[in-house]
Amino acid sequence: MKRYELRAEVYRAVSYQDPDSGAIINTYDYADPEVIKVTGGSVRPWGSIQDFGQDYQYKDYLQLFSPTEIPLDARVGRIRNKAGELLWQEDTGYPTLFDVFGCFPENDLRGTAVDFRILLARTEVQEH
Question: Which residues does residue 40 pair with via DSSP β-bridges, in sequence order?
Fold first, then answer.
């Protein structure tokens, strides 16, 4: 599979507990992201999944590869190609945010992790 060099911003989650409800709340610092090098296959390797069940659901999925492991509570956004062009953006013009729902090591023949396969799904509520 041919992969293309990309750049992505990773937003780490900062968790706190709501004193009234006891719920754990994640917040993200979009002003101070970590920029990482990633590679990806085609522009939309998995495309989208549409479910016509009781409630219509449309999910946009993305698969990236990175030498850096990304935690599952992080978000990824502002994915750009080598020319600096934004590859995913909303109709409003803002960059699309993705939730990390999988990060798996890719091993060589000796069992050493050489890359991480990062599976992303479009965040339902796009914050900006």
Answer: 4, 64
CA 66 – CA 53 distance, rounded (Å):
35
Global pTM reads: 0.80
Distances (CA, A) of 1 to 26, 41, 42, 71, 82: 35, 7, 9, 25, 18
Using CA atoms, how far residue 96 sits from 87, 114, 127, in Å, is 9, 28, 9
Whether 29 and 12 have beta carbons less than 8 Å apart is answered as: yes
53-111 per-position pLDDT tens digit: 666 566 677 889 999 899 999 999 999 999 999 988 888 889 999 999 899 998 889 98
**Cβ atoms of residues 64 and 41 within 8 Å:** no
